[in-house]
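Hi there, hope your week has been kind to you so far. Would you mind checking whether the tokens look sensible for this chain? I owe you a coffee for this, so here goes:
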Amino acid sequence: MEYIIFSNEQTKVAFSKDKGYLETITYKDRTIDLHSKLWSVQTKEGELGIADMTEFRHECYDGVLKLFWTNDIAKVGVIVKTGEDGKLRWRINADVFGGEAVRRVRFPILEGMNFDTENYLLITWQNGRILKNPVDSFLRKGVDVPFWVGRGKYGYENEYPAALSFQYGAFYGQEYGYYFATEDPDAYIKTFAYDYNKNAHAMDFSVINYPENMGKTTSYCMAYDFVLKLFEGDWQTATNYYRDWAIQQKWCKVRLAEKELPEKLTKTDMWRINHTNYALGTRTQEYFDTSVKLRDALDCNLALHWYGWNMSRHDYNYPEYISAEKKAEGWPEKLSEWNKKFDEAGIVKIPYINARLWERKTQSWEDENVAASAVKTEGGNLPEEPWNGFTLKAVCPATAQWQNKVADMCREYGVECGFDGMYLDQIGSYNATLCFDENHPHPLGGGTWWNDTYHSMLGHVRDVVGKERILTTESCCETYADVFDLFLILDNCLQNTEFNGLVDPGCAVAVPLFSLIYGDYALAYGSVCRFSDRPDRFEFNLVRNTIWGFLPCIEGVDMEEFENGEKYVEIAKRVVDFYKANKEIFLYGRLTEIPQYACSEMCVIDWDATADDGTEFNYTQSYPAISASVWETAQGEKCLFAYNYSDDAQTMEMNGKTYKVEAKSFCNIAL
């Protein structure tokens, strides 16, 4: 076979000269066989690919390769450019004619990726997951991915912006790896897809791109680069590549050291959420009393992330949070009085509201004709939302009705009831949703409108609540780093990694992508660290989350748990004291590395797993007796944060040096 060869100083790609398939990638002395179809264009009538094209030609000159395919109904062009640091930059454009229209463009398609040795896949869902041996432990198993994690069977798909917090990934083995990213500064809606290739027993990776005015436009021109780089290293190497690009984007205009943060945020030493115990938030006296007890026991400034403030359960009656019955009982007035009491106790409080969904069973759904503003499918229907019996529906953020409703809720519940900020659920976590309502002020389907209109909404909200109140959202989608003060990340605890139920035991690991990329530009808190957990598990999660860059956070704590929680309070007090002593670094510095080091190990036995035959079992996982992370201060000085979980002093060997960490204690060591 004759090839078209294109290369930079490290990587060579070879395309078949007759058709233009991507046949191989050569990295240094390693050649990888792919035979990838590279692209597909979906129209109203079907899907076009290289095999359907009748003519193919190419042009090649210094640093640029152009590939062209044509047939009777379409022409497609791909351009590949060499970039800095060994990167190859790819774009595609497609035109269809003869009554056709472009719906989706899958590009690039990299087929048959795998390694003979142990390998890992970085998925940037929420704060990041590493999947070990993903082809065997996940993709080939054909498990149904639950909606809150993504979707797929014999594959995994999810959208950016939101469900995927970052627009990059990495697939790597012991000798080399693939770094792939879309360097898109405007946050176009797109899907990252990882599929099982049965024939090659490998993984296929692709990006699904959505044109503006999908199904009506006859052309698509990719507005951003897809970047491919082969590299030696691991997920941290890939994350450093991404950070170099990410912090130059419009959502990183101001570093935290120069940013005006709400004073109540910077003074807070411990966050308390009741995400898994909303009922506690409805028992206001107990909620207040336990907050005061926690404040005093931990000697801290406490902030509450409050579910149940409206005397109702989570995911119910949106956006009529305080029911007519509760209003008749005078709950808004009583809530204002309670908030004054919290103020007098020096306790900050932020209520939960959802900024994406409306309950179809509410009277307001009919009275305000919300269906007109709801997100629509291509067939004009309301997409299924699998919450609360499928009666919650997404409202399009581009519509004036929803923009005004969210701002009104922030005024009514946040300002008038005396809260210190607002938690706006799902903006930073749930996937951008294509909308095809021609009466809405946005292009049909794809584009940047989802991110743009949420930014418009949040600008309005900020005007309503003022700069002194804290704005936060769920998860950590990067594009909102410029409009939220901090981000709630719940899914980083050892026992609560959602991918655990999808992959083989021990093959899903949480990693702190947000802190590594944006630690000096944005703040995060969260994780479900409960007094109802075993003490060692509580300690591991709370400590590791803190030295990873999360503002300290605990979950729940009713009166009985507090009264029987001496061990938990002792652990939390150590964390709070270390945070207070190093607050300037945590707030304005950044996590730079999860270092490699040697020390003794401990066992954590609490992983629940299900075998392929449905049998449930527990298994044991070992972890270092010391957790450690490397930080950089706002002034550029490096330091090592470390904590020893054991009851005896421990040593750790790192970069040829030995460090001693006393029993059950933190240390901050200058590097």
About this structure: DSSP finds 15 helices and 40 strands in the chain. The first strand starts at residue 3 and ends at 7.
